[in-house]
């Protein structure tokens, strides 16, 4: 997935190459008919592919495919972000099909989970942070996050956090 620059209305594009190889053409992109996207992430589990993004109206949207990204349903508004100043976004699936979306504004990390076919309320992390700048996520027995940012005293090149996000 990719977004165009603000001068081009921050349009959302997706790409699918069914059998990638060194000779594959990676230049073809499909416009998702979505614009004013501020930040985007994607993840997959088997045939299921999810694209999640936050728009300039603070809406959090979800596009889902169940055929390896060949086709997608209609975008679904799943929540609202407290701000459009989002500095990191990541999503990951659990092996059972549950999904977690993590996003960080300047000082707060949020998680919004999709559990047993239903979106849950977003929850803010209760830890004190400095200025957050990025988040990456993977599920490996629990949600493992890689969070970047800086404290008020020094820059953190990276900060790894492995914690039980189920309590979040």
From TrEMBL:
<protein>
    <recommendedName>
        <fullName>Sialidase domain-containing protein</fullName>
    </recommendedName>
</protein>
């Amino acid at each position: 997935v990719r977004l165009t620059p603000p001068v081009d209305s921050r349009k959302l594009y997706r790409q699918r190459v069914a059998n990638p190889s060194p000779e594959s053409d990676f230049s073809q992109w499909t416009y998702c008919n979505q614009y004013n996207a501020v930040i985007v992430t994607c993840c997959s589990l088997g045939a299921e592919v999810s694209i999640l993004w936050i728009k300039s109206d603070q809406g959090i949207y979800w596009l889902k495919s169940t055929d390896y990204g060949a086709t997608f349903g209609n975008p679904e508004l799943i929540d609202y972000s407290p701000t459009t100043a989002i500095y990191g976004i990541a999503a990951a699936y659990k092996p059972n099909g549950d999904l977690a979306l993590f996003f960080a504004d300047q000082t707060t990390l949020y998680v919004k989970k999709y559990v047993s076919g239903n979106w849950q309320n977003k929850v803010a992390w209760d830890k004190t942070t400095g200025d957050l700048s990025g988040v990456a996520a993977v599920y490996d027995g629990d949600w493992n996050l890689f969070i970047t940012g800086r404290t008020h005293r020094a820059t953190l090149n990276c900060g790894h956090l492995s914690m039980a996000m189920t309590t979040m």
